[in-house]
Amino acid sequence: MARTRSSSSKLRYCNPAYYLKRPKRLAFLFIAFVCLSFLVWDRQTLVREHEVELAKLSEDVAHLQNLLEEIKTDGSAVRKTLKDVPDDPIDVQRREKVKDAMLHAWNSYVKYAWGQDELQPQSKSGVNSFGGLGATLVDSLDTLYIMGLHEQFEKAREWVANSLDFNKNYEASVFETTIRSRVVGGLLSAYDLSNDQLFLDKAKDIADRLLPAWDTPSGIPYNIINLAQGRPHNPGWTGGESILADSGTEQLEFIALSQRTGDPKYQEKVENVITQIKKIFPDDGLLPIYLDPHRGTTAYSTITFGAMGDSFYEYLLKVWIQGNKTPAVKRYREMWEQSMKGLSSLIRRTTPSSFTYICEKNGESLNDKMDELACFAPGMLALGSTGYGPEESQKMLSLAEEKGLDLNSLSSDLENDKKSCEVVRRGAGDHVAAQDLLAWTCYNFYQSTPTKLAGENYFFHAGQDMSVGTSWNILRPETVESLFYLWRITGNKTYQEWGWNIFQAFEKNSRVESGYVGLKDVNSGVKDNMMQSFFLAETLKYLYLLFSPSSVIPLDQWVFNTEAHPLKIVARHDDNSGNDLKSSTGGQQRPKIKLRSRKEGRP
Predict the structure, then answer these.
(1) CATH second-level architecture of 91-399+426-568?
(2) Minimal CA–CA distance to 141: which of 86, 181, 101?
(3) Is 212 within 8 Å of 229 (Cβ atoms)?
(4) HSE-up (13 A, CA, CB side) for residue 536
(5) pLDDT for 445-503, tens place per residue?
(6) For the chain, what is the radius of gyration of the CA atoms?
(7) Contact criterion met (CB below 8 Å) for 482 and 542
(8) Residues annotated in a binding site
(9) pTM here?
(10) Which parts are annotated binding residues for Ca(2+)?
(11) Which residues are known to be catalytic?
(12) Which residues pair with 118 in a beta bridge?
């Protein structure tokens, strides 16, 4: 009976009448119910939000995975997801000025020297300095394309199709014929940009005529060959030796040609040169400018980053970049880093202005002389700095770029440079106008002369900074090339200001009614009578790109040869001998390369 009462007592709490008679307990129950409901609702809401977040994250992961797969086959997928920084109106205006300069140079060539190698603006005539290969025309193809000058590009293409003939009894420089329009580099670049088979066929034709130059006991090529008859040899003034830059500056073009055609013979020839050079490569990575093509050894001669040495070191870095930095091209990077340690041993500074320069070396003696040609080095150092660890990368970049030296510390000998320095000061702050390292030195090759154009080379003297040696200017591009790389890599607009000042000096001193000319003397301003083809191929192209968005010929997709002809980067996975180009059946197989359409990559 007691058990029954206990059970009834518990059940009464389930009877609504019980709570109606006890209002306080009813209120407590109601509050408890409401709190529990809120708790359950809040947890459900949190779960739903969490599920939504997880779904979004899953979508993002899937998108990134898809993007990664696309990158493996075509890096342009990344670019499609990015927007350019809006064009600076000043950059647009300056870019158009450079484009106008290109049109003036090109139209003058068309009017007075069409189909010939180079224009002589003063006499309004053409001259065949390179055997009548249309040097200026082919050298200008990619510049016209990049600048969006469609009509001019098509006119040039028509001449290449109908008139460019390599069967000439002409003693051609293997080096010049490869890097310039003359011819392999210019034609390959035009092909990579336009995907027009005509240019590849022409590049293959001229390359086949050059190949016998590599048939030497060591594989180090002769530097001269007759385009119609073969018979390679070296110039008499070298004493029968091959030139370092000439022998080590065909790798980009011939590797690219093997990649585009599927024929490994071009790559095999030029890579064998590096194999031979590596056998004699010194600890400091610095080679004299003469090589014996018979024994594969060096000959006693100057070590320099100027004429006849420069582009060998440039190509060690750029072949590594061209191969997309894979293990197949690792040896090039290793050799380049070795050479950069050697370069550091050639660095000296002037007094009182602390201009940094690269000496030349003869035996154990240093010569305090630097060519304007060596002004490619700041850009090369900046381009190569990305392959180092953080500390070493910053060290190499610092050697290349400007440093914040106070303007007032400049020598009074540079008083005439202050106006241009003030332009830089206004554009980039009070302490960026001057710099004590290589780019600043090269810029002052220009700013230290009355015409604001650089001489061919400079000598350095204790207590007197520098003086012009050979005083002509032939419209060379090396300094603006380095400014282009430094601006692309650092984003420092100081380099754009320096480039603009150099362009204005060309406009003031070199522009004439019928084109552009060099100067016989940068001090007096007396003009010569030659518009070099590289002025259109390099100088104006680099100036145009200096004021263009970084998406125009992006450096992660293209590598420039030493004549500023951009070639498409293609990842290499071979054994340095071109074996990845051979199909399993022994035939030839052209690698798949996705090239941009004609309108892509332009502002």
Answers:
(1) Alpha/alpha barrel (1.50)
(2) 181
(3) no
(4) 33
(5) 999 999 999 999 999 998 999 999 999 999 999 999 999 999 999 999 999 999 999 99
(6) 32
(7) no
(8) 562
(9) 0.79
(10) 562
(11) 176, 310, 456, 478
(12) 127
